[in-house]
Design brief:
9 strands, alpha/beta, 15 helices, 3 domains, 305 residues, two-stranded antiparallel ribbon, elongated
Length: 305
């Protein structure tokens, strides 16, 4: 039997860990408060630190449907909230005309009914599934245009959506709402006020090691320590895009696939494309810089042992 809403911060930590998500206590505390207070949770942080994964894990751990709205530039109401099935409406109008029904008021009421409504993610999130409200993920909100945020205010404050032709539709049960942003632009205060807020930072060495051993249980202990220490050192460099946890996992898996037991300069140089995603960053690290960081890794691990 799947659990309900966790009753403590420790229960949240255990719930996330049971689905392979290793969270720190500040994140678990904010998530606990979001679930208990029924308020949306707004997560900001660099790409690849695990913001989106939280919604997926909650959906799985709480046995709730995941409704995902992937944001992009130009996203509008017809793609995010609802639109009318215009082709079916036209057919209905033609059939009414053919049958001699010229009552325009009655016809308008018929064609602007739920039968002709196409539900998009935000409207879908207002409906329960097997008596449970869904987990609504509004992912990468910063990619949308600023005016789109106004469409979300009613949803995030009252869990309802107003459709001019039908009126206000309220949530059967308030959904669990996770909003993420990579902070490529600032989100308006009006939206933030409706949410609890948490900045998801890069993990510590110990937590990143935990994450690797959870996601890649067969990885060599020495290799995992070297990988994490190298990535932690790399995040101190002046790069266009620092590697996130997702890139650490990709790199660790790539090195395992190549049967690497220890890091060396050649192995780093040949696999940087799994860790860094911009050529300028790769060119900056490859070669002598990678060798320097590797030496620093050896010193750090020697001190720790």
């Amino acid at each position: 039997m799947r659990p309900g809403i966790p009753e403590s911060i420790d229960a949240v930590l255990s719930l996330l860990a049971s689905s392979g998500y290793i969270a720190d206590r500040p994140l678990a505390t904010t998530l606990f408060l979001s679930l208990k207070m029924g308020k949306p949770l707004f997560l900001e942080g660099e790409a690849g630190v695990g913001k989106t994964e939280i919604a997926k894990v909650l959906s799985s751990a709480l046995d709730r449907k995941l409704v995902r709205l992937q944001c992009y530039e130009g996203l509008d109401v017809s793609s995010a909230v609802y639109e009318w099935n215009y082709s079916r409406q036209m057919i209905e109008i033609r059939l009414a005309e053919a049958s001699g029904n010229h009552d325009k008021q009655s016809l308008a009421s018929d064609v602007f009914s739920e039968e002709f409504l196409i539900e998009r993610p935000l409207l879908q999130a207002l409906k329960s599934d097997n008596g449970k409200s869904p987990v609504l993920l509004i992912d990468e909100l910063d990619r949308t245009d600023e005016p789109f945020e106004a469409f979300l205010l009613e949803m995030l404050s009252d869990f309802q959506i107003t459709i001019p032709e039908m009126g206000t539709i309220n949530a059967e049960k308030p959904p669990v709402v996770i909003v993420t942003s990579n902070r490529t632009r600032e989100i308006h205060d009006a939206l933030k006020r409706r949410c609890l807020y948490h900045w998801v930072d890069y993990p510590s060495v110990d937590r990143e090691l935990q994450i690797i051993h959870t996601k890649l249980p067969g990885i060599d202990k020495q290799l995992s320590e070297q990988v994490v220490t190298f990535v932690q050192q790399l995040r101190k460099e002046d790069l266009f895009k620092l590697p996130g946890v997702a890139e650490t996992l990709d790199w660790a898996e790539a090195l395992t696939q190549l049967d690497k037991m220890v890091l060396d300069t050649e192995g780093v140089d040949h696999t940087l494309g799994t860790l860094l995603k911009y050529q300028d960053d790769i060119a900056k690290i490859r070669g002598s810089e990678a060798a320097r960081i590797l030496e620093q890794v050896k010193l750090e691990l020697a001190k720790a042992s």
